[in-house]
Amino acid sequence: MTGRAALLAVTIATTLAGCMPPPPAAVRPLRFLSINDVYVLDTLSDGTGGLARVSTVRTRIGAEGPVLFVLAGDLLSPSLLSKYYHGRQMVATLNAAKLDYATFGNHEFELARDTLVARIAESKFKWISANCVEASGAAFPGVASWDTLRMQGTLVGIFGLTIQEDYRPYVRCTNPDSAAHTAIDTLKTMGAKFIVALTHQSLAADQAMLRREPALDLVLGGHEHERHDVLVDSRHVLKADANSRSAQFMTVWGAAGAWRQAATLVVIDGRIPLDTAVQAVVTAWQDSLKARLGPETTIGTAVEPIDARDAISRNQESPIGDLVTDAMRSGTGADVALLNAGTLRLDDIIHPGPVTNYTTESLFLFADDARTVTFPLTGARLRTLLEHGVESVGSGPFLQVSGVRFTYNPGAAAGQRIQGPLLRPDGSVIRPDETVTVAFDVYPACESGDGYHVPEAVEACRTWEQAPRGADLLHRYVQEQLGGKISVPPAGRITKAGS
User: Which of 232, 247, 282 lies at the terminal end of a domain, its last residue?
Assistant: First the structure.
């Protein structure tokens, strides 16, 4: 079997879309399969995803010739399993799926240093990072800045790169641009004819890197949680959907200076059979979780679908954001509740029917359990926090809210995006000199997470360990205020100007 028919058969015909004509049958192409931001081992409730299905895709492609299988960061944290197993379950499953390379995502550094080092040591795949090292400047044990391998007679160079943020004290991530330039120059000197960057940073940063670095041939990236395929001078930046909802498959042929690239998005759904060996590993971990948490218990019933996907909560007012912030405001007695969208991690739709404690625990996956502190804030300072949120549409700092309504213009100058007054639910104005009580989760309020700076919360943060957990506030709200019936709260809290 040759040509397009072979390519379709290899990648499970019903999953492919929008690829260029494949290389001639006589050509031995370079091939890459990439996933990113994978927090869940098994299929999601909507039937998509699942590392056992990705493994099937990798096996089918591999039957036709070599393929490099990579993961562009965020695999060890956060997840419901990682609350208890700290990424062990992910390493074991990816080992079974025969992953080749991974780089650090920003969430890898939420683990303690010794835990991260232990997970790296357990990995049968290679870890690479050109810009993230220990605080001393030494590389993490078992992590290389870059690597080379021979694929189909071509020396391929690959390096890892991670977004630069304020991480735990044990880690230091240097400037990604400088690190990328050094890695590319080094790989060229070593004779690499095709150079790949495995990155966990913004799409804009990936595009800028390709424009700056003509010797870089391909970027396989992560961080956004959403699929992207962007061309820069005929070279691709590829990103897949989070939680293995899709994978990116790249075929490359030609020669240095004249490479041709064909990118294909592979949708991971029920049309792809499970790799039974990998699924056995997944099932064992899920059974272990059930043994630890006990049986699932119903906390309420969803009377309609509740959209809890990241792509919604990070871009606009969302049903799950409205529900959780209402629970925060009700449970704390605050006037206003704020929640950075990155705290919500279910990334799925809650379907009509019973909602269990497993579902609500899966909303809140970080070590602080999304604990909520309350503190006084003037209307002017509340506006400042909301301004910061709308500067980050599409990412974790974007705020979900309760007890306040506002309109914003994303095209306005920084600091002027909130338009008009801040309003209470009854339509009355929150004046700039007025003080309101605000409920906010610990990460932004107490740790300056996602770039928030809230000195007004200092006193409340002294006892944050005693603050209520987000999951507990939601349980109480559903049972005591909603009578166990969960529906989508009224919208209209966040309005985008012109929409």
Answer: 282
Listed in sequence order, the residues at least 6 apart from 86 whose beta carbon sits closer than 8 Å to its beta carbon are 76, 77, 111, 115, 119
Residue 248 and residue 228 in contact, taking contact as beta carbons nearer than 8 Å: no
Burial string for 394-418 (b: 16+ CB within 10 Å, else e) reads bbbbbbbbbbbbbbbeeeeeeeebb
Bridge partners of 144, per DSSP, are 128
321 plus 272 within the same structural domain = no
| Torsion sign, CA atoms 96, 101, 104, 109 | positive
Q: Quick check: 6 pLDDT over 50?
A: no
Of the chain, the end-to-end C-alpha distance in Å amounts to 51
Residues 247 and 307 in one domain: no
The three-class DSSP label of residue 288 is helix
- The boundaries of the domain holding residue 356 are 295-496
Q: Name the pTM for this structure.
A: 0.75
pLDDT of residue 110: 87
* Distance, C-alpha 407 to centroid of its chain: 27
Among residues 78, 79, 488, 498, the alpha carbon closest in space to that of 317 is found at: 488
